[in-house]
Amino acid sequence: MPENISEPRSMRKRIAAVTTVGRGHLGDSLFELLVFMAALTIVLLMALLVYKLYQTAEPSISRFGWGFLTSEEWDPVNDVYGAKPFIYGTIVSSLLALLMAIPLSLGIAIYLSQFAPRWLRSPLGFVVELLAAIPSVVYGLWGIFVLAPFLGKTIEPFFADHFPGVPLFAGPIYGVGLFSAAVVLAIMILPTISAISRESMLNVSSEQKEAAQALGATPWETVRMAVLPLARPGIIGAVILGLGRALGETMAVTMLIGNRPEISASIFAPAYTIASVIANEFAEVTAGLHQAALVELALILLAITLLLNLLARLLVQKTGSRAAKTKSRRA
Amino acid sequence: MKNGLHHRRRNLKSNFAYALCALATITALIPLILILAYVVFQGAGALNIDFFTQLPKPVGETGGGMGNAIIGSLMLIGIASVVGLPLGILAGTFLAEYRSPRLSWTVRLLADILSGVPSIIIGVFVYTLLVLTMKRFSALAGGVALAILMLPTVARTTEEMLRMVPDSLREASLALGISRWRTIVSIVIKTAGGGIMTGVMLALARIAGETAPLLFTALNSRTWPTGLDKPVASLPVQIYTYAIAPYADWHQQAWAGSLVLVLIVLILSVGSKLYFGRKMRRVR
Question: Are B119 and A250 in contact (CB < 8 Å)?
Fold first, then answer.
């Protein structure tokens, strides 16, 4: 996107030609080498990251094969490891968080990009983004001592009492568990989803909105017919980025999810996530199958988040470039 | 008549949607206010001089502080800055000033992807890279983990800021016969300095609160930091350790630690925002 801001490419090329071909400045070559190496470091780091994780996880990969993904056993005493409860906990807690965060974030994004009075937009946006600045461990602390006891005394018993027999809300209530972790996760990913969707809603050209208004659309109809459809890829990208954040979130979840490797139908039951089990067990293990299994879990989490991030970037880029196109056409 | 009713219903629906969106925004502010209020009120009660100057006391004894964790955190952030800032700024300079289409595209993509990698995975990575080879947990490993986490942010903001420097400045400098690298360092980077600073502050704010990547790199310690190759305490890890322990006194300390941590992070992120806002107004 910044491509359009900075002026003629050809000019830059000409400058580059003049300065590098003309004279063989030693300083120039050295500096170029320096920045080139720095850029290359990022590439090498990513490659090394994948390689080192694979190498350390190898004993577990060759020992358990694909069965690792479907086995429910996690038994360090007998050296048998399976990832299923952790994958389950990771995905369910993140999806529950998305369920709560999506409507709220979209409401915020629409309000801040379309409805709110102009003077209020950027200060309010800034305050919402402060949610992203609070460290995860502080969310966890607040979650343990304030949120989880509150949820355990109010909302969770409410659902359990009003929907008796529904497995989703059955079982004992501890306060800590999947649901509490998901609520904190939802709060944590709110700023990510709302900021990026707001950005893509702002990218929708005003002609589209004016056209809808000229047809007599109410403000909400304008949003629904002109803004949301055009911003959709960006919004989906924002949601996927939020999901990526939720899947990898460690501290707050570790402190709230109850850390029990079980798969239960109830959303109030304790569970365990990939990130949490690594946080809890990794510092204590020594080289061996246990360590390899934990690193294999990390590898699975890495694969999921890499895929999601790639997908999200593509989608966000798509709305960005489309908006840029309509803008340049106007100019 | 029927038409008017239809119209009124559409307006009603629009107002309803407006109210829902405003309500969503207010709802998001409630947890923010609650968290800040709890941290301030619970934390302020336990905050005193000892908190900043004393070592943690053993279980059962009250008092003590997180002095070592505060020093440790500064140490880790220092190491991360020494390693991560030059690398990030230079990589950003490459992306903005040297166009090699294929490598730039790859670096940009990988930087974006790296910023999405969960921080705990970076911790595991640095563990396999440094802790296993050095055979010990160390401040150095923790610092390197934080450096990797700040790298993409610093690189990408540096790139964006350098791109905002008009080409006329570069041309003027080159026309005066100043070499290309001097032009980049003394003219371009210097002009964009304020913007790069905001990126640096944002990156520092992000890593100051990071806990997960430190759990098995820097580990924790109950003594003052003694060296780069020794485990070191840090504010976030200490908060975590105290929060999940069953002692009320430690919980108080965890709140106090959270207050200090939140203050540091908020000052950094609000500061960068205000600084950048002022800068932008001046440019305009």
Answer: yes
**CB within 8 Å of A153: residues ≥ 6 apart:** A175
ipTM of predicted complex: 0.93
DSSP structure class, residue B244: T
Provide DSSP, B235-270.
HHHHHHHHHTSS-HHHHHHHHHHHHHHHHHHHHHHH
The pLDDT score that the predictor gives to residue A103 is 97
Q: Is A234 within the bounds of a domain?
A: yes
Nearest-angstrom CA–CA distance, A111 and A101: 15
Q: Has residue A255 been placed in a domain?
A: yes
**Residue B168 or B284, more confident:** B168
Tokens standing for residue A94:
């993140």
| Alpha-carbon gap: A204 to the closest alpha carbon of chain B (Å) | 19
Helix (H, G, I), strand (E, B) or coil at A271: strand
Cβ count near A210 (within 10 Å): 12
Asked if residues B206 and B284 have their Cβ atoms less than 8 Å apart, the reply is no
Mean pLDDT in consecutive groups of 10 residues from the start of chain A, 331 residues: 50 58 72 94 96 96 94 92 96 97 97 94 91 95 96 92 87 91 97 94 90 92 93 93 95 96 92 96 90 97 94 79 48 35
In DSSP terms, which residues pair with B56 in a beta bridge? B64
Helix and strand totals (H; E) in chain A = 16, 2
pLDDT computed for residue A321 by the predictor: 59
- Chain A hits for B117, Cβ within 8 Å: 49, 248, 302, 305-306
Q: Quote the CA–CA distance of B128 and B136 in Å, as a whole number.
A: 11
Q: What is the CATH number of the domain that holds A226?
A: 1.10.3720.10
CA triplet A183, A185, A187: central angle to 5 degrees? 75
Q: What pLDDT score was predicted for residue A13?
A: 62
pLDDT in the model for residue A190? 96
The pLDDT value recorded for residue A205 is: 86
Q: What is the mean pLDDT of residues B215-225?
A: 93
Structure tokens at B84: 């991560």
Contacting residues of A for B21, CB less than 8 Å apart: 107-108, 110-111, 115
Rounded to 5°, the CA angle B97-B108-B91 comes to 50
Structural domain total, chain A: 1
Mean pLDDT of B56-80: 91
Within a domain: A211: yes
Q: Which of B32, B109, B123 sits opposite A130 (nearest CB)?
A: B32
